[in-house]
Design a protein that fits this description.
The complex is a heterodimer of chains A (about 325) and B (about 190). Chain A is an alpha/beta fold and about 325 residues long. Chain A has helices at about 10-15, 40-50, 120-125, 125-140, 155-165, 180-185, 200-205, 220, 240-245, 255-265, 280-290, 305-315; strands at about 1-5, 15-20, 30-40, 60-65, 65-75, 85-90, 105, 110-115, 145-150, 170-175, 190-195, 205-210, 225-235, 270, 295-300, 320-325. Chain A is built from 12 helices and 16 strands. Chain B has helices spanning about 1-10, 15-25, 80-85, 105-110, 115, 120-145, 145-155, 165-175, 180-190; strands spanning about 25-30, 35-40, 45-50, 55-60, 65-70, 75-80, 95, 100-105. Classes of the chains: A alpha/beta (about 325), B alpha+beta (about 190).
Chain lengths: ~325, ~190
């Protein structure tokens, strides 16, 4: 079968190649998915560039990407929750990375039936970004009437986080640039802050939750707008000490500015590392089918143009997901 | 099962032999919400008479989106008749929207009942005629009525269905977007 593989680390064009590889088969706990569409995310680009070699070591060559939608064509003997012919979507686990291929074998726990009211291409763009948003906001125990600030509302994760927070009944502040104001407003944000002309720190006060999708100085700065006892969840900032232990860095200390800022507010700082989860994807399926969350696709590329899709991703200008139609 | 026998008895004189035969080719079954009775792409041998609950038949287009053909509630029949009558694989999926009780028949055996009991011939023809009329109406309504008019008719035909279905099921039955369905509902409330 055909697969787009990472053959070395470095520049996108030189590091990716279409290879003929053997078709996988479903192991006892797996389903084999005939891929209809795959989506690419910033992490896929970072892996190719070699920026994550120590954190996520992969053998070379490896097939790229994690997000997928398609049809179950084979299932392992222990799989009872799927049948041949089911239409599914998934963010595949790290060790099964490789959705830019005709087939991918995935542990059934990471798979869910796809929402019935959207296309394969729309479904493929959901898993990673939507799981990240759901798991971050659920960790923060989001509930109705919470005041939530979501940094960078037009980003892949931010745009889902806005919709998820609204579906939960929260009041949502978000930041974006002037050109995206209307678009982000349409996603349901209550107060859209144009970071080019306004300072969110003067507008947001006593937020219950801040969702940090930017990192850098934003992680510590977020404590200026969170309420006493509130929480800042971050998907790109510094690791917290508990997460660091999980990654095998036991003597890790939270950067001083974040530690001090959180102490001052008696607030929590938590780094969220998205984990594949079919049950969570099933929750997202319901929200999509009930029209509470809309998939957002920036552009769909045919499989032979997948390398161009990565170049588009690298510009950082996509508004919504970049999807590759496989078959 | 009684409901079905009574339904048949209201249209024809049912001999005890024929009644016994109907029992012999059927099985009462209960399925839970979400269970799939017929799956697109697979062989179809069964047809179902609904005694309780709500089922839906739909096809999935090449883009992966679902289109609802019909809902079946108490006293309705549901299957993939294209597959049954042309010996092809299913073009439809039939799923339970609620816990549903059905009487399951082998479709071929039920179809052939008139060869053994000729009194069923006119009964079956009559059912088929009603089915053709209802399908023609559905096609014509789809061609000439506005979405709001189609929604009104839908509610007349399935008065209690909204407690069983999701909005996207209804939108996909009417061939409109969920946003349009929401707009139509808002307009109805205003009237």
């Amino acid at each position: 079968m055909k697969a787009l593989q990472i053959v070395k680390y470095g520049e996108l064009k030189k590091s990716l190649a279409f290879n003929e590889v053997s078709k996988p088969t479903a192991q006892v706990n797996e389903v084999l998915i005939a891929v209809k569409a795959a989506a690419i995310n910033p992490i896929d680009k970072s892996i190719i560039l070699g920026n994550l070699q120590s954190l996520l070591p992969i053998p070379l060559p490896s097939t790229s990407a994690y997000d997928v939608s398609g049809v179950v064509v084979e299932k392992g003997s222990n799989v009872s929750n799927f049948e041949i012919g089911d239409l599914v979507y998934s963010r595949v686990p790290q060790e099964q990375m490789g959705t830019l291929a005709d087939f991918v074998a995935v542990t059934s726990e990471a798979v869910s039936k796809k929402p019935g009211n959207i296309s394969f291409e729309e479904a493929a763009g959901l898993p990673l970004a939507a799981l990240t948003a759901l798991q971050s906001l659920e960790y923060a125990n989001i509930k109705a009437n919470d005041k939530v600030l979501i940094h960078a509302g037009s980003g892949g994760v931010g745009s889902f986080a806005i919709q998820y927070a609204k579906a939960k009944g929260a009041y949502v502040y978000t930041t974006t640039s002037t050109s995206n104001l209307d678009w982000v407003k349409k996603l349901g944000a209550d107060r859209v802050i144009d970071y080019k002309t306004e300072d969110y720190k003067n507008i947001v006060k006593n937020a219950d939750i801040v969702f940090d999708t930017l990192g850098k100085h934003y992680s510590a700065e977020s404590f200026e707008v969170v309420k006493k006892g509130g929480i800042v969840v971050s998907v790109v900032g510094a690791l917290d000490e508990e997460s660091a232990k999980m990654f095998g860095i036991p003597d890790y200390k939270l950067p001083e500015e974040i530690a001090n800022a959180s102490k001052e507010k008696n607030a929590t700082y938590k780094f969220i590392f998205m984990h594949p989860n079919g049950a969570h994807l099933n929750d997202i399926k319901s929200l999509i089918e009930d029209d509470k969350i809309k998939p957002i696709v920036d552009k769909i590329y045919p499989f032979p143009d997948a390398i161009q899709a990565f170049e588009h991703l690298a510009t950082g200008r996509a508004k919504g997901k970049i999807v590759i139609k496989i078959s | 099962m009684k409901d079905l026998i009574n339904k048949i008895k209201s249209s024809l004189e049912l001999t005890s032999e024929a009644e016994e035969f109907i029992y012999s080719i059927s099985k009462e079954k209960t399925f839970s919400k979400g269970e799939v009775l017929i799956r697109q792409g697979q062989a179809v041998k069964k047809t179902f008479f609904v005694t309780n609950g709500c089922l839906r038949s739909f096809c999935i287009d090449k883009n992966g989106k679902e289109h609802t053909l019909l809902f079946a509630i108490k006293n309705w029949w549901i299957s993939d008749y294209i597959a049954v009558h042309t010996d092809k694989l299913a073009t439809l999926t039939v799923e339970c929207l609620t816990e549903s009780s059905v009487i399951e028949f082998n479709a071929k055996e039920l179809d052939g009942i008139h060869t053994r009991f000729p009194e069923f011939e006119s009964y079956q023809r009559h059912n088929l005629e009603r089915h053709v009329v209802s399908l023609h109406k559905r096609i014509l309504n789809q061609l000439q009525l506005s979405a709001a008019e189609r929604y009104d008719l839908f509610l007349q035909q399935y008065p209690d269905i909204e407690q069983y279905t999701r909005n996207f099921h209804i939108a996909s039955y009417l061939g409109i977007t969920q946003q349009s369905l929401s707009r139509i509902r808002v307009e109805k409330v205003k009237k």
